[in-house]
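step=encode ok
step=design start
structure_in=
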């Protein structure tokens, strides 16, 4: 007996997350065949030997005896209060523990916030390139992601005037990712103030994805969006995955700040959705207070002499030696968004495709990268790598990339 096709939900039409898509599945197949794959597609510090601070491990172990029950749907009080203290230290004084939600990573909280906010046909302004979860979180709820350009020639920093021109009567929110994934751009105070003012003028929810907030290089300055968005509703997203190298704990937070009284129905909806999933991972929540209140070891990694600083420099050096590549030096986060100058290759730009290039790189050189088009850009001549391997491995990776491009000149 043949069964009728079981179709996926129509809610998923248009939803993409290619970072863990077909290329990653092909990498898994190659590993099963015995090949060693260098995986640069995901910002996963633990895969490259980074470890969370030992004090966070101690905090989890010391509190395991009280981690068996569900916690409050917003999270345990010490974790939420630690986030409040972080916000107050940054100048955001109007928040309390009631304004903080702890979630299973920032990803879950983005989905909860968009589910509570959006109706079919609504629009959300999302950067291009973006972290594709943002676009997916909008599309999956029947709304439309309107991508505002962050042009390579502007250092991937958006033009506020271009953003404001995209606003319609259906626009509900403006998303900012700073420091930026995938480009490494860090926005100036002036640009962020302009974006906050746009959100205020048009009564938009200002969503600030700040998961890489303290991962900065060479005197780059991080400006918390909530310090500038005083007269509208601001949602700040942060967590333990990147700065504290604790992806597997799945601990993130969402902070509501600015004007909130007019948004009570929306905030209550977020709490209802948080209640439906009962609570986030409880043992991991006990690491938050120690993480935010303890020694900030990320600065040891990003300053000159630190491992992330050295890896970033290794990417810049390798690209500088290349006949085919260029990159905007990342000022923050843990990625390089690399351009392939396809005009230097046979067939030129019209013949180059970032997906095909990434597949060839994987199958021939056993390096997995994320094609630039995965990040909702209209061009197909970029790819993203992480800065997580050590400098020697990065040099090896870019040697393989250069070899692949050299081979294409001979074909």
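sequence_out=
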């Amino acid at each position: 007996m043949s069964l009728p096709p079981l179709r996926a939900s129509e809610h998923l039409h248009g939803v993409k997350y290619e970072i863990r898509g077909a290329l990653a599945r092909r990498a898994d197949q190659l590993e099963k065949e015995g090949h060693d794959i260098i995986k640069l597609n995901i910002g996963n510090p633990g895969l490259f030997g980074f470890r969370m601070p030992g004090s966070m491990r101690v905090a989890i172990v010391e509190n395991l005896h009280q981690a068996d029950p569900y916690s409050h749907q917003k999270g345990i009080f010490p974790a939420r209060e630690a986030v409040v203290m972080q916000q107050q230290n940054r100048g955001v004084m109007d928040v309390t523990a009631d304004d903080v939600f702890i979630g299973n990573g920032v990803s879950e909280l983005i989905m909860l916030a968009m589910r509570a906010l959006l109706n079919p046909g609504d629009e959300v302004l999302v950067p291009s390139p973006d972290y594709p979860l943002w676009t997916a979180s909008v599309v999956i709820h029947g709304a439309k992601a309107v991508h505002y350009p962050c042009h390579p020639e502007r250092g991937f920093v958006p033009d506020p005037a271009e953003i404001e021109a995209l606003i319609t009567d259906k626009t509900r929110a403006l998303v900012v990712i700073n420091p930026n994934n995938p480009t490494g751009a860090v926005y100036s105070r002036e640009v962020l103030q302009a974006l906050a003012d746009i959100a205020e003028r048009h009564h938009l929810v200002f969503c600030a994805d700040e998961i890489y907030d303290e991962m900065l290089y060479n005197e780059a300055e991080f400006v918390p969006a909530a310090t500038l968005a005083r007269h509208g509703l601001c949602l700040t997203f942060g967590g333990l995955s990147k700065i504290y190298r604790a992806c597997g704990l799945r601990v993130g937070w969402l902070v509501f700040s600015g004007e909130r009284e007019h948004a009570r129905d929306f905030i209550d909806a977020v709490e209802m959705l948080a209640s439906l999933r009962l609570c986030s991972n409880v043992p991991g929540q006990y690491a938050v207070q120690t993480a935010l209140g303890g020694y900030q070891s990320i600065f040891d990694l990003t300053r000159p002499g630190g491992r992330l600083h050295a890896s970033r420099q290794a990417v810049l050096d390798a690209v500088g030696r290349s006949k085919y590549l260029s990159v905007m030096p990342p000022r923050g986060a843990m990625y390089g968004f690399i351009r392939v100058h396809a005009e230097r290759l046979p067939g030129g730009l019209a013949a180059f495709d970032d997906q095909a290039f990434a597949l060839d790189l994987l199958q021939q050189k056993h390096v997995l990268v994320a094609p630039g088009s995965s990040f909702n850009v209209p061009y197909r001549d970029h790819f993203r790598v992480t800065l997580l391997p050590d400098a020697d491995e990065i040099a090896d990776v870019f040697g393989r990339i250069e070899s692949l491009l050299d081979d294409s000149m001979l074909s």
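step=design ok
step=annotate ok -> The mean pLDDT is 95.
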